[in-house]
Every structure is written in C-alpha cells, then in structure tokens.
Amino acid sequence: MTKLVKNIREAIELSGLRDGQTISFHHHLRNGDFVLNMVMEEIADMGFRDLTVNASSLFDCHRPLLTDIENHVVTRLMTDYVSAGIGHAISEGIMDTPVEFRTHGGRAADICSGETPIDVAFIAAPSSDPMGNCTGKFGKSACGSLGYAMPDAMHAKKVVVITDNLCDYPLQGWSIPETCVDYVVVVDAIGDPKGIVSGTTKITRDPVGLVMAKNAAKVIKASGLLKDGFSFQTGAGGASLAAASFLKDMILKEGICGSFGLGGITGYMVDMLNEGCFKNLMDVQCFDLKAVESIKNDPRHIEIAADQYASAKARSSVTDNLDIVILGATEVDTDFNVNVHTDSTGYLMGGSGGHSDTAAGAKLSMIIAPMFRARLPIVCDHVAAVSTPGKDIDVLVTQGGIAVNPSREDLAEAIKAAGLPLIGINELKAKAEALTGKPAPLAHGDKVVAKIIYRDGTEPSPIYSVK
Amino acid sequence: MAEIIKNASAGTMESSDAFVTIEPAAANQINIESAVEAQFGESIRKSAEEVMAEYQVSGAKLTIKDQGALDCVIRARVETAIRRGMEA
Asked: What is the ipTM of this complex?
C-alpha cells in the first residue's frame, strides 16, 4: 500500500473534508511556515465554506488566512497565540464569531478529550517516510520538537503529513508514527528556514533588565526551591534569559543538579543542560538552531507532546511537577492578574501559550517586567484581559521592587530575610505613576472579538474590539 | 518673546523618547502622534502648550512624535526644539 498522494488537493479530496468541519495546524515552523497557506489556498479554491481552523498559534506569515475569513471559507478560529498582524484584524472585528483562545495545555486537553474534535489535521513534517512516520529533527526545514502536532495526529479523524524531505521507510526516530497518518504529500518546501528558527536570542544588556534579572535569580534562591532535583522553565525574552544566566552561575557555584528544564527550549537551556545544571530537557518546541541540534543528537533532550507538557485533563503532565517558572507580562493588576493577550492600545498581539499552564503548575511562578514600559506602568487597576488569573502568580519582579502575592506570606518572609527590596503591589503602582503620570483609561468597542478559555474551562474575561 | 526663525528639531525616535520638530508659522499649532495617545495624549498637549507659553512662542508649528517619553523628556525636547528654532 502507499499513502503518498500527488498533491495537497488530492489529500484534501481523499480526506472527505466537508463544509462546516474543523481542520488543524501546528506552529513549529513559526513565522516561516508555508503549510497553512498552501493548504488554505487549495481549500479556498475547492470552494469550501464555514470551516473552523484550530491552529496552535498563528503568525504574521499566515495573513492570507484573513482573506479566507473575509470570504467565509473560515468562520471560526481556535488558537493559543496570535502575532500582531493577525491580532489587529481580529481586534478590528473581522470574525463574526469570537475567536477561542486556549492555553497550550488547554488546546491539547480539549483535543484529547473530544471537546474540540478535529476532522482533518495537517502536519508540517521536516522529514517523513512514505507511510507517515515523521519527525522535525532533521531535513532542510528542521524545527526540532513536533510536540504541539502530536495531539492532533493522535485524535484527528484524518491526518495528512506534508513534507519536503521524503525518506526511505522506515524513518529512524519518528516523533509521530505511521499508525496515525492517512496521507503523505511531498512538496518543494514546507517553510523558510530563516523564519522557522531564530538566531540565538540575546541576553538583555539593558541595565534595567539586568537589575530585574539579578533580583529574579535572588528571589529564586530565597524561595528555597533551588536544590538537587529542581525543575525550571523560562520564557525566551531578554530579561528572562538574563535571569536564567544569573541562575546558571548560582547553580554551578553551588554544585546543584536539577531534574529537568522545560518548555519551548532555547540555546541557553541547552547550555544549562550541557554544563550540568539539570539532567534532562523536556521540549515541546525548539526556539533556535542550537535547540534543534541538541534534540536531534542528545538523548537527554526529550521531545514531549503538548498534552504531556501541560494538559490539565491528562492523568498527569510535566507542568504539575514544575518548581520554578519565569514569565513575562504586558500588564499586571493589583490582584496579580496577568494580561499577555492585548497591547497598550487594546489590540490582540499574543496569547497565553504555556503562560497559564506553567503558572498554575509551578511552585514558584514569577513575572519579570519593568516598572513601566514606554510611559505605561506595568501595574494597573484591572488588566484589559485576564490571560492568567492572579491566584496562580506568586511574585512580580521589577526594577522598582519585588511585589509578592498576599497569598504567599511565606515567600514574602523569605524574600525579606534575604534582604531583597519588597514592595506592596499598590505601592509599586503608585511609584511608577509618580514618574509616568496616571494613564487615562483605554476605551474599548462593543463587540466581543475573542474569548479566553482558561485551562479549567472557565472564561475569565472576553476581549472586546478596539474603538 | 521667542520668535521661531527657522526649522529645528530635538530628540529621537527611540522608545521612551520623543522627536520634536518646530517651524515658523502664522499661528501656533501643535500636532501630536503618540504610541500612548489614548492614555497620555492630553497630558502631552498640555505640557507642550505650557513650554510654548513659557517661551512666549506665538508663531510656530510644533510636531511631536512620541514613543512613550516621560513628561520631563517631552518638556525638555520641546524646550530644546524651541531654543534651536530661535537661534540665528
């Protein structure tokens, strides 16, 4: 038998896709992805209507999708993250039905439980054999982990693998097995390597960022969690990476060895693995070339599926055993609620991704952010969108002081004992406003353009159109 | 009383700064483009007007392209643009 079909159109025809059904995509090729656009072009050309697109994230390279939305080829969107180019159109009201934002763990959980069934999943595979055993670890479009595609492959009614590197059967070291795959399509290129993996993200050199990062590392030390067997995740932002770098020095100096580093993995986490900071990396997505090389060559660097990463409905997931996470925020309110969905003008430009999942699971969930950013204080009365509820946030580290959630008196005591600058969250807000002035409230439009579905299924706050 | 006799500018387009230009005009006119217009547009206008009044500028078109500068920065950039515009 063969699963090879001659092109994407034939795969769509054979899949039995009908109007009103749901198709899915994953985002490991990030802003270099060609697959979503290639598939949507065929789908639009074939005259389909009213489809739901469930994509783990959407980037600016996916802007052609906006035309399919205008033409009612696509009438519902589910995603975990949108970059600004897509977010702007959503905020301006391009969809009649609100976009459903989930967390990375929430998306996986709802796919695995059948809450959000997928009719046809399209898997962008940097290498595949003719039966669909596929991986992201090698090939000219290598992206490393295929973690976010795994729930789709396991649970979609039909699965189409699209590759630009067809290998002999059996492909060694597959990430998704042939048992899940219906059709295999070979194309010239599934993506642009320049957009797939970034160069190495640089540690910040901004003095404000470095002060925050140093204090973040000291807070982690004060928390008492930095001991043999610890686990750690950090974002890929400059200040978070700087914090990780200070943390690394501390770990090596004290001769501690952690259990695992988790996440979207960057070259910095690979360095920490190689220098003995932890025994393993658990990787749902590679951010740079160094991470891709590492997951290909180092058995300690383990690929994990999105549901194992962060599903709240799985029997267990890695985030349940996470000790420390360093996260970012566009806004934090005085109840510690965090917004990572909208920018200061009310436009969508992000999403939870794994933010809420790791914050919920980690014993210490830390936000690191400047006291104000371009005149806008980080702390406000009410965030425009609750991406992660304040109950899951333990501490906010800024250059103007460290604010601890009142529910974590133990942590506040430990930080105080370590001689670090504690500040109440309301005082921190006042301190920033003394420099910036008090911002006028931002008015929003009347239309609900998106809803945030938190990992427990609750919907903390709708997102409105811009005015 | 300050007379604006030539085009002048101050500041940069960097984040947290403002780029201010001034040019001679029949009457005072202030144009503001700001990354934080919704939150601070009124405040920026008020500060610019105050600095213009301080120097008794009566015929100038002032343009502020603000990237989220603090109030003290806005005032300093406006003042510098005015003083440069007064110089022969």
From this structure: 0.90
